[in-house]
């Protein structure tokens, strides 16, 4: 079984669904969205150099 198949199978499992739902809830929080934007800005500014 390839890595992608194992990942897909995990994400379809009950535990995988729990983790996906938790991730969605966390990303709905404004403070986490702001933190992600800061990281993305930092990474994009480093690439331009």
UniProtKB/TrEMBL annotation:
Stretches the record annotates as Disordered: 14-49
Compositional bias segments (type: Basic and acidic residues): 21-34
Protein name: Uncharacterized protein
Organism: Micromonospora maritima
Taxonomic lineage of the native organism: Bacteria, Bacillati, Actinomycetota, Actinomycetes, Micromonosporales
